[in-house]
Amino acid sequence: MSNRLRQFPLKTLVMNCGLCFAALFNQSSFASEDCSLNGESVSMYNGATTAGKTGIIRCKDRDTGKLLREREIKSGKIYGLARQYRDGVLILEYTDEENGQRHGLRREYANNGKLIKEETEDHGKRKGLQREWTPEGKLKRLELIGNSEAESASIRWTVDGAINSLRCANKPILAPHVDDASLCGFKGKSSKINYFHDGGQKRASETLLAGVVQESTQFDYNSGKIRSTSELKNNELTETSYGDNGNKRFQVVLNLAEKTRAFIRKSEFHENGSFIKEQKFSMLDQDGRRRNVLTEETQFYLNGQTSSQDRYRYEGKDYILDAKTFSDKGKLVDTGSYVIESAYRRRAIGVHQSYFENGKLAAENHFNNAGKIYRQKTWNEQGALMNDDEVFEDGSRKAYKK
Question: How many helices (H) and strands (E) does the chain have?
Answer without folding.
Answer: 4, 30
